[in-house]
Automatic annotation (TrEMBL):
PANTHER family reported in the protein's UniProt record: MEMBRANE METALLOPROTEASE ARASP2, CHLOROPLASTIC-RELATED, REGULATOR OF SIGMA-E PROTEASE RSEP
Species in which this protein is naturally found: Pelomonas nitida
Domain of life per record: Bacteria
UniProt GO molecular function: metallopeptidase activity
UniProt name for this protein: Zinc metalloprotease
Length: 454
């Protein structure tokens, strides 16, 4: 059932984003006087057809993983002399380029609008209050302490951006890590006093693929009470007598300030391959109870860690994040631009081997995120749509034949040289571009399967 839901929301996302992209091509083509023969959502057998007043055939096809706009004179078919003013290939270079660029531009504008809508709607998000960082994590080395409240971030310690919530902080950290840059944080205590700056050495983790181990090595965990939220039946925690609602007071005589400290203590409760029994004092229904849990050892990205098979921590403090209409629009434009720049830089780093190709995600991962965001609510799903729309815009602008960006490079050459790219060169570049896209898709699918297998 869950798989069906993910597939459903994935198709909903594709059903929104692909027509928007093709609509961009269609509208600018019509504005340039080009005759559009077909506007198709999907490929393969036609399921639904309607002919518009301008003669365009609008269709929905059986394979809903793309779409296209077919224009008169876009291929090698002959064009009657009286129709040349409506044929794509007889337009000026500038108009042809405008039609091709309109698809990615439509996705970009949609992303700006969706980001702005999410900002204007407002949403309840975890506050950027941090708990005890894991031992040896970047946050611990930077001097982050339990109860620190992150107020702003900066890539250079000079230009600062305010942080409204924990997801904003995590996004800034992920961007810095992907680009191999440091990130400076301005933190205060929970009352907003005692401002200080710390430097998070995210460049140390450049090239690492995004996963749970990377998040633990960064170490920015939300502040939460050291309470046992859930106990897995048959697990090590259940065998020790732990119950949901237990508040952990001390471990081996040391007080437990928050859930981050508790998690770290559980994971480190072993001597090599031997788990270590801990002495816990917990508060249960107003009474103090002493327990002696022994974790089971598990492998976590090549490291041995202790597991009690319990859920730890209460819900973090929440904050409502919302903006006015104009500020939301500005934030939407800024967020989309930042995402585009980060994506291009990350692709460049992957090409030279400075970033992991595991950053590529395929349809399975996208479907998973679609389902998760839809379950989380309207705002998360709109934010997901904005990010995928922006990714489509950037992907289509890459200078690869088969993509809009590749054809734009042809037109740039034609505009500078005064002659079109020869048919022979177009054929060779087309083959090379197809091979590159196949390799990218293979990597993306491989990453999908490895994530699910892991």
């Amino acid at each position: 059932m869950e798989l069906i839901q993910k597939a459903f929301w994935f198709l909903i996302a594709i059903g929104i984003l692909v027509p928007i992209h093709e609509w961009g091509h269609y509208r600018v083509a019509r504005a340039c006087g080009v005759k559009v023969l077909r506007f198709s959502v999907g490929f393969g057998r036609v399921l639904w057809r309607r002919v518009g007043r301008d003669g365009t055939e609008f269709v929905i096809s059986a394979i809903p993983l793309g779409g296209y706009v077919r224009m008169l004179g876009m291929g090698d078919e002959p064009v009657a002399p009286h129709q040349r003013d409506q044929a794509f290939r007889y337009l000026s270079v500038g108009r042809r380029a405008a039609i091709l660029a309109a698809g990615p531009a439509a996705n970009w504008l949609l992303a700006i609008g969706l980001f702005a809508l999410v900002a204007c709607m407002g949403s309840e998000q975890p506050k950027a209050l941090l708990g005890t960082p894991p031992a040896a994590s970047l946050a611990e080395r930077a001097g982050v302490q339990a109860g620190d409240w992150v107020r702003a971030v900066s890539p250079d310690g000079q230009q600062w951006s305010d942080v409204q919530s924990l997801p904003e902080l995590h996004a800034a950290v992920a961007r810095a890590q992907a680009l191999g840059e440091s990130l400076y944080l301005t933190v205060t205590d929970v009352q907003g006093h005692g401002s200080r700056s710390v430097r998070l050495e995210t460049e140390r983790l450049a090239g690492r693929s995004p996963d749970a181990r990377l998040a633990a090595d960064i170490g920015l965990v939300p502040e939460a009470e050291p309470v046992i939220r859930q106990v897995v039946a048959g697990g090590a925690g259940a065998a020790a007598g732990l119950q949901p609602g237990d508040r952990v007071l001390t471990i081996d005589g040391q007080s437990v300030p928050d859930a981050g400290f508790l998690r770290d203590a559980i994971q480190r409760a072993h001597d090599g391959e031997q788990p270590r029994t801990m002495a816990w004092r917990v508060e249960r229904a107003g009474q103090v109870v002493e327990l002696s849990p022994t974790p089971r050892l598990a492998d976590d990205a090549g490291r041995r860690v202790g597991r009690l098979e319990v859920g730890v921590g209460t819900m973090p403090a929440m904050v409502v994040v919302s903006y006015g209409p104009l500020e939301s629009l500005w934030r939407g434009a800024q967020q989309s631009w930042d995402m585009a720049v980060t994506t291009v830089k990350l692709i460049g780093r992957m090409l030279v081997g400075e970033a992991s190709v595991k950053n590529f995600s395929g349809p399975l991962t996208i479907a998973d995120y679609a389902g998760q965001s839809a379950r989380a609510g309207l705002s998360p799903f709109l934010d997901f749509l904005a990010k995928i729309s922006m990714s489509l815009a950037v992907l289509n602008l890459l200078p690869l034949p088969m993509l809009d960006g590749g054809h734009l490079m042809y037109y740039l050459f034609e505009g500078l040289s005064g002659r079109p790219v020869s048919d022979w060169w177009q054929q060779q570049l087309q083959r090379a571009g197809l091979l590159i896209l196949m390799v990218i898709m293979a990597l993306a699918l491989s990453n999908d399967f490895s994530r699910y297998a892991g």
